[in-house]
Design a protein that fits this description.
By secondary structure, this protein is an alpha+beta fold. The protein contains five helices and eight strands, in the order H-E-E-H-H-E-H-E-E-E-E-E-H. Helix 1 crosses helix 2. InterPro entries: Ribosome_maturation_RimP, RimP_N, RimP_N_sf.
Length: about 180
């Protein structure tokens, strides 16, 4: 029942979250005694602050109340943002982790730690030991942000910025027509 309910509620919740200016990162409905526990995780390009979580919570609550015929029981709503331990699983996660240190466990080879640069459609550029690597999302078993207690080295950030600028220039330059 909760999975069926979740599939009916998810579009309603996703629309409310999107209208509030955020992305629905995950959604879950669980039975909690006589109530339903509706868990909503939201994210945004600039993160999500406490005031913004409260705003999204009000928007989702209003949407659920408008569609009470779908949920048809008492519910508890829990709205939160993803923690630092959330795995990087899709392109937007990598994009939002720009300049962050990440631990990457590839499907093949040893795990490594690097700093995220440009996140493209199918891969991210990662600075590892002074070298920039293309890391295909499909080749990653697990990737998580590493907590840092100091500012990243300026030379690393400059190298990643230069690399991103070069990538953007390569994709926006007009191609010559064959003569």
């Amino acid at each position: 029942m909760p999975n069926d309910l979740a599939s009916r509620l998810e579009p309603i919740v996703a629309e409310a979250v999107k209208a509030a200016g955020f992305d629905l990162d995950s959604f879950e409905v669980q039975q909690a005694g006589r109530r339903q526990l509706v868990k909503v995780v939201v994210d945004g390009d600039d993160g999500v602050g406490l005031d913004e979580v409260a705003g999204v919570s009000r928007a989702v609550s209003a949407a659920l109340d408008e569609n009470e015929h779908v949920i048809a029981s008492a519910y508890t709503l829990e709205v939160t943002s993803p923690g630092l331990d959330r795995p990087l699983t899709v392109q937007r996660h990598w994009r939002r982790a720009k300049f962050r240190l990440v631990k990457v466990t590839p499907a093949e080879g040893a795990a490594f730690i690097g700093r995220v640069g440009h996140a493209g459609e199918k891969s991210a550029r990662v600075l590892v030991d002074g070298e920039i690597r293309d890391v295909s999302y499909a080749s990653v078993t697990k990737a998580v942000i590493e907590i840092e207690f100091k500012q990243p080295p300026a030379e690393d950030l400059k190298l990643l910025e230069t690399d991103a600028s070069a990538l953007n220039a390569a994709t926006t330059e007009p191609k010559e027509e064959p003569k």
